[in-house]
Amino acid sequence: MQIQSFLSIAEQFKVVFLDSYGVLKNYNGLIHGVRHTIDFLRSRDIIIRVLTNDASRSQLQQAESFHRLGLHDIQEHEIITSGMMAKQFLEQKITNGKIAYLGTENSAHYILQSGLEHIPLRDIDLRNLDDISALVFLDDEGFDWNTDITKTVNLLRHKNLPVIVANSDKFYPVSKNEVAVGTGGIAKLIENMLDRKFIHFGKPDSQMFIYAYDELNSTGNYNRSEILMVGDTLQADILGGNKFGVKTTLVLSGNTSREDAPLQIRSSGIIPDYICESILT
Amino acid sequence: MQIQSFLSIAEQFKVVFLDSYGVLKNYNGLIHGVRHTIDFLRSRDIIIRVLTNDASRSQLQQAESFHRLGLHDIQEHEIITSGMMAKQFLEQKITNGKIAYLGTENSAHYILQSGLEHIPLRDIDLRNLDDISALVFLDDEGFDWNTDITKTVNLLRHKNLPVIVANSDKFYPVSKNEVAVGTGGIAKLIENMLDRKFIHFGKPDSQMFIYAYDELNSTGNYNRSEILMVGDTLQADILGGNKFGVKTTLVLSGNTSREDAPLQIRSSGIIPDYICESILT
Amino acid sequence: MQIQSFLSIAEQFKVVFLDSYGVLKNYNGLIHGVRHTIDFLRSRDIIIRVLTNDASRSQLQQAESFHRLGLHDIQEHEIITSGMMAKQFLEQKITNGKIAYLGTENSAHYILQSGLEHIPLRDIDLRNLDDISALVFLDDEGFDWNTDITKTVNLLRHKNLPVIVANSDKFYPVSKNEVAVGTGGIAKLIENMLDRKFIHFGKPDSQMFIYAYDELNSTGNYNRSEILMVGDTLQADILGGNKFGVKTTLVLSGNTSREDAPLQIRSSGIIPDYICESILT
Amino acid sequence: MQIQSFLSIAEQFKVVFLDSYGVLKNYNGLIHGVRHTIDFLRSRDIIIRVLTNDASRSQLQQAESFHRLGLHDIQEHEIITSGMMAKQFLEQKITNGKIAYLGTENSAHYILQSGLEHIPLRDIDLRNLDDISALVFLDDEGFDWNTDITKTVNLLRHKNLPVIVANSDKFYPVSKNEVAVGTGGIAKLIENMLDRKFIHFGKPDSQMFIYAYDELNSTGNYNRSEILMVGDTLQADILGGNKFGVKTTLVLSGNTSREDAPLQIRSSGIIPDYICESILT
């Protein structure tokens, strides 16, 4: 396993797609030193996009969070989230009724602002489901799992609805050694109970890549060989980049450690084009 | 699909194993008229055993619950639960340390009284797991799903333990149209997150059948051709009875309706020897 | 379920993506009347692309097959196959060694012509795997299942390789009532034996959509709202189109019958924008 | 991990259940020295039963195979196979029609001799399935996988039948480093294609344990605490013994190596009561 310098790889590309958690941030906040890398990329006129499996906060909120952490020049439009993809899907496909959701009010406000009414699952009356037209898993917070998971099962037994999982990550890190169960994990429980598959958004699916690529080409002229995807997770970032057809860099500053990387690459067959310690050097 | 009289079938056997929910009880309480059937079986000297996938209450508590519902002559020793099987397994296999559990205090008291210490998951300190020797899923109540499901995932990431699911039913009925997510469903979520399989107890596995059979033959002399298993669920009761090698009767008074039965039998390939409307006639 | 006229829908778009089997062809050959629809689309200057989960034949061979069936004006470049996507992936990611394959020589010639050596699985010596760099499932024909499925399992136990499934369809129709097991089914057997996931190509994944979209925009200027995806299978065509973000039409001339469509749509939650009997009217 | 002497453990029991492959035999034939252990057990009047997941040969054939290998005193009635369990099930549950099978003629002769007609899958006419009443997976040999796997899928699409898998092992060893795909693997492929579950026989399910236990108690008086199960595979032998409620010994002479055992035990949570190098000492 050859470890290379990220900076010397990145400068060969016109565009760099960065995962957020494990690349720019970790459980401690900003990874120390990433500001220099961002400055380096800016100085070479390399375009940056952050592609994140997050559906709980808006682009603006995510940008502000980077600012608070000290990464001041990340702009709102540079952030692309799986929640945006779910929002786009709902706008196109659900044109009437109320959208039921599991998640915080903030996540609902952000994703479901599209003119359609939305209603938290806990406020639904299971005896009167006529106007409910879809269900969205937005966030693992904002609801009572003891009551609302069972209520969701009953809702879907009573009425067949399109069900959208805005972030399909099963878990996410909350400290060096701890994870939390994410919306993707809760959705899987209910898929398993009902023997049904929901519509999942987020890497490794291509939607965020397509969105970023389209938007770049609405004003410029970029092809996929000029784009580099950088991430810390083989199954999401590297597989996603490989399938979209861009070069991929695995960094060892997050989910995948230096010790585990060779075995994980071999056993998964997901092969990054480059491997770097982090994006720092 | 030929519907037969339960009483005329039952009188051909020396022993009748009955599932509880959907056969003797439903969401309303005792199924009206089962008392006469129990009286009929007693009058013919047919031995009764109730085999139930329940791990939250002791034999005595379950017997008392039947008494309160008006079925006064069901005795403690006639009830066999998946919880008893889990208890037996733990006694044999876990001989030191503390057993962590998810469930009510009552379920823990009943199942884990075997001399070993037990501790509710919420009281565990994840930084000090040295004395934790096993984890048991006992009941879907008695803990906070929002915090304790995630804590369970972290516990099992930190320490590999034998994990026992005392009742593997994914859901159970709570009213005519509603179900609740059971311990089996929550266990599946965590199995899925960790890519691991736990040890599950309950029908269709053979342990309760073996237990009942052994106990009968400790004082009498019965062979399997003299036993009838009666249940409302193909995947649990009928498959379990078929695999244990006794004759099976599907009743249509619970999970499987008259309309659904033919399709479910054909598509599952699980074939009861007899089909009856209920055990009433 | 509202059934609409395909022609009046199609004329609202600049580009129509068509699935092949169940839309243009069926087990009998060309679906009678599709030539008129193709003529109609040409007359309106609507661009056509055929997106097919097929990895056994080249674009030219597929075009010639349409010509033989009487659809003379389908051109090579209008056909996009999952095999092309696998080929592109291999070219980018596998840059040395020999590629082992399961399939016909023809499929290997077409997909693996990229400069790398390829070798049929049956010719591999399991004691000497040093130069084998990847494995591809190309076709369900061209090898002996009795010996080569087991040999594949042993190959992957001896050496961890990237494994690519060029067509992930589990089965495909061969007559009105019969299907054949496809490469996707055989791949699943081996994934299941090894507890591993391979890299699958084909709808509903977005690669073919992205490829077609990119190629259109290399010479023109189309956005996704101007494209219609037409297919007969909810899980492949409609889900794929929905996720790529184009409007979708389900036709009832193939896998999904008029009787099954409402239930399948409700139970899957995969909602086409339009439903048409076929593309004929 | 404490390694103990098998002989000193075994002499504490009245009955020893032995797995065949990995305990008595391996790819080379008889494991050198097992004859002395059998002699030792006989000299102490310890009863022996061989419990094997094999459905291709009769008890007599299996006994003769042991004799040819030099283990002369293993008797026919001491061998219990998963095929016998499938046979018993078919006799009880399938009382008319023809049983279709996949496997050798020998396996069919042995298992399906029960009075019912049987027919190899290849001889079935898919247009006339009226008299076919069940399907059995008997052996991985004796049929053409290229044609008959697909034919099986079509058979089960045309007619819903009970499907029995007489040996559910997914693979079995054929040499030090090679395995072969077993009937259980092929059955899984078809279960996956049809989204259906078949009825599987063999360890870890309890049927063979129950059968042996019943037969012992038809002439004697043994309880489960007097029985020891010995096997080389955690998921089949040890889990099966644990669930049946007897003490279990893992031997390291087959599927589970000394290096892998601690990790496999921890990660599976399947805990043998004893661990021995082999049954030799």
UniProtKB/TrEMBL annotation, chains A, B, C, D:
<dbReference type="Pfam" id="PF13344">
    <property type="entry name" value="Hydrolase_6"/>
</dbReference>
<dbReference type="Pfam" id="PF13242">
    <property type="entry name" value="Hydrolase_like"/>
</dbReference>
<protein>
    <submittedName>
        <fullName>HAD-superfamily class IIA hydrolase, TIGR01459</fullName>
    </submittedName>
</protein>
<dbReference type="GO" id="GO:0005737">
    <property type="term" value="C:cytoplasm"/>
</dbReference>
<dbReference type="InterPro" id="IPR006357">
    <property type="entry name" value="HAD-SF_hydro_IIA"/>
</dbReference>
<keyword id="KW-0378">Hydrolase</keyword>
<dbReference type="InterPro" id="IPR036412">
    <property type="entry name" value="HAD-like_sf"/>
</dbReference>
<dbReference type="InterPro" id="IPR023214">
    <property type="entry name" value="HAD_sf"/>
</dbReference>
<dbReference type="GO" id="GO:0016791">
    <property type="term" value="F:phosphatase activity"/>
</dbReference>
